[in-house]
Amino acid sequence: MIKEICLVIYYAFARYLPKSNAHFGGNIYKKIRYLLCKNIFEYCGENVNIQRLAFFGSGKKISIGNNSGLGINCRVHDNTIIGENVMMGPNCYMIANAHLFEKTDMPMRLQGRKETTDQVIIEDDVWIGRDVMIIGSKHIKTGSILGARCVLTKDFPEYSIIGGNPSKLIRSRK
To answer: Is 72 domain-assigned?
Structure first.
């Protein structure tokens, strides 16, 4: 019951508070969103920063580690695990569902959606740049950097710098 109340308060009010580094009251807005999400998520570590306009559905099966955050206006789907020390820029999207399109005798918009149980795992010390799109079930390994506007379509090794659409390995950090 507490989870549902916190979810309503978050989406009705706290989601729209100014960003966490606002000159006036930023730390208070950060704390309000954090306390609500601590009761919504499956796990929410210490010093987690949920920025304004972050959308995470029901918060079901979302786990976020210490010193990590959800960027401004990001969209995270259920069944997401975020490690520790993860930075996420604004407007990042995780897309798990797709429209059905197999029938050619009926408009695609009437065919419905394919619901998936895809899971996104983001390991520790990852930097996700602005406007990154993560498609389907992905495993982002420790120490990786996803460059701005990257469309992540596959998995890469640890300490990778990834960019482009579709995503490609730019270089290793090692």
So the answer is: yes
Tokens read off for 59: 């918060």
**Alpha-carbon span 67 to 7, nearest angstrom:** 22
The tens digit of pLDDT for each residue in 107-142 reads: 998 988 877 777 999 999 999 999 999 998 899 999
- 92, 75 contact by CB (below 8 A): yes
C-alpha 167/C-alpha 130 separation (Å) is 14
**Looking at residue 140, which CATH number applies to its domain?**
2.160.10.10
Residue 82's DSSP bridge partners are 64, 122
Structural Rg of the chain based on CA atoms = 17
Question: By the 8 A CB rule, do 122 and 140 touch?
Answer: yes
Q: How many domains does the chain have?
A: 1
pTM: 0.90
